[in-house]
Amino acid sequence: MESSQQDALVGLLRPGRSLDVKLPPGEQFVPHGWTKPAFWVSDEPVTPHQWTACRTAHPRSGLWPVLMYDLPCAVIDEEADPDRWQAMRRIDEIDVEALMASAACWDGAGWDGTDFRQSWQGLASPGVPQEPADVRADRSIVDWPSQEPCRLMLVPADRSADVVASIAWRLFNQDLVDPIASSAILRSWEDRFGARVTHLGDGVLTLSVAAPPADRSAALRVVAEHLVFCADSLSNDPDDFSAHLDHLTSGDPWSFWWD
């Protein structure tokens, strides 16, 4: 790694880690009140292949790449634990199933007679792998339908789910504003559905999915989890809900937005 690039990543690379991918021009982003950088971000939009190169290098660098729609500084917690690694160790302390069961952020009024609050049956079973999770993540970036210009963000995180906790990104869900709890849910989706964080913005999060639920019945269980994570991600239109179940079984990316 060139010395100039190494200098650009000081405070982000852990001891013994390096990034052997040539980066475009960029800079570190240090949130107000932080003493260390939260992430590195490119000055200009990048190509999907630049994301893929950084993703391939992640086991060596410890920096997970994210395509960023806009600078999410408005939702970074400026009072977060300055020791990100100490903070992220708290993720292991969270019981995701208990968190899901107690959150119940939906109002009980379901679609097609489904009352998720009354019919909660625990976490959904793992999905059916269609291909390796990292391969699916790479392909989802290359095949991204809109190809909206995005800058590249590199976040210190051992796994993609930890990105949210690492930068203390506060989601807009009124029930789950804790980035540590959000990363715990994302870890669970990584393990069960081969999910990977690919895109991030101001109130927007996208995941690639390599092991989607096997059928609409399994997808219905996943919907309940999605509503806990992001109550704004579904409309009340029954036709939209039916299409959403089909979407979940297809293996297409999961997108969440907080209004």
Radius of gyration: 18 Å
Taken in chain order, the helices and strands follow as HEEHEHHHEHHEEHHE
Main sheet? 7 strands, mixed
- Given the C-alpha coordinates, what overall shape results? globular
Strand fraction equals 15-25%
Low-pLDDT regions: 105-111
Count of separate DSSP helical elements: 9
The N- to C-terminal Cα distance equals: 41 Å
The helix-and-strand class reads alpha+beta
Helix content: 25-40%
Strand order of the largest sheet: 1-2-4-3-5-6-7
Q: What's the total number of strands?
A: 7
Average pLDDT for all residues: 83
Describe what this molecule looks like in 3D:
It is a single chain. This protein has 259 residues and is of the alpha+beta class. The chain contains 9 helices and 7 strands. It has a 7-stranded mixed sheet. Strand 5 (195-201) and strand 6 (204-209) form a beta hairpin. Residues 105-111 have low confidence and may be disordered.
What is the fold's blueprint, element by element?
Blueprint: H1 3-8, E1 26-29, E2 39-45, H2 48-61, E3 63-68, H3 84-88, H4 96-103, H5 133-142, E4 151-156, H6 163-166, H7 179-193, E5 195-201, E6 204-209, H8 216-229, H9 238-250, E7 254-257
Parallel strand pairs: 3-5
Antiparallel strand pairs: 1-2, 2-4, 3-4, 5-6, 6-7
Helix pairs in contact: 2-5, 8-9
